[in-house]
């Protein structure tokens, strides 16, 4: 099963474990076998998802929004990004050179074209740009992609 992820980037440290637990439970609910994830590997939700997919025996592919995407990751988080990127089974580039809403929107559209279902870690609040989590959830639902929204009680945005 090919499972995509969307979700918040800025999460509190105390949110990581409850979100990982919720993702793990959802992946087990979706399939009794390891899944193949599809992620943009953004900080926060996407990286938690990648780690959970690996921990449950699955694989994942990464959609890179832009050639300079790595530069948008804080220096303190780049080693983790690099490690997770190196563990991807496939890396797809959108063709955009510069990160921004257009590149992120293209990456989300590419992600949705590759998945059978979407898991969103989302608090339900509206986003501030066309590539925000709420818009990705709406686009998935409009395409008829089964979508599960998770927001554990202990999860908080930073």
Major sheet strand order: 4-3-2-1-5-6
Output the CATH class name. Answer: Alpha Beta
Q: Determine the fraction of residues in helical runs and give it as a percent range.
A: 25-40%
Class computed from helices, strands and strand pairing = alpha/beta
- How far apart, in Å, are the first and last alpha carbons? 32 Å
**The CATH architecture:** 3-Layer(aba) Sandwich
Topology pattern, helix = H, strand = E: EHEHEHEHEHE
**Low-pLDDT runs:** none
Count up the helices: 5
Beta-strand content bin: 15-25%
CATH T-level fold name:
Rossmann fold
Largest sheet: 6 strands, parallel
Q: What's the Cα radius of gyration?
A: 14 Å
Which features characterize this protein?
158 residues; alpha/beta; Rossmann fold; 6-stranded parallel sheet; 5 helices
Describe this structure in words.
Helix content is 37%, strand content 22%. With 158 residues, the chain is an alpha/beta fold. It has a single domain (2-150), classed as Rossmann fold (3-Layer(aba) Sandwich). The chain is globular, with a radius of gyration of 14 Å.
């Amino acid at each position: 099963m090919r499972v995509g992820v969307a979700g918040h980037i800025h999460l509190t440290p105390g949110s990581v474990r409850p979100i990982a637990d919720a993702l793990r439970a959802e992946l087990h609910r979706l399939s009794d076998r390891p899944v193949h994830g599809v992620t943009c590997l953004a900080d926060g939700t996407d990286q938690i998802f990648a780690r959970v997919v690996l921990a449950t025996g699955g694989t994942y592919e990464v959609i890179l929004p832009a050639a300079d995407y790595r530069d948008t990751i804080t220096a303190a988080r780049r080693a983790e990004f690099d490690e997770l990127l190196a563990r991807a089974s496939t890396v797809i580039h959108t063709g955009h050179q510069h990160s921004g809403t257009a590149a992120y929107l293209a990456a989300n559209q590419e992600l949705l074209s590759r998945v059978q279902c979407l898991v969103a870690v989302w608090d339900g609040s509206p986003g501030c740009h066309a590539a925000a989590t709420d818009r990705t959830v709406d686009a998935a639902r409009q395409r008829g992609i089964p979508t599960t929204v998770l927001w554990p009680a202990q999860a908080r945005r930073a």
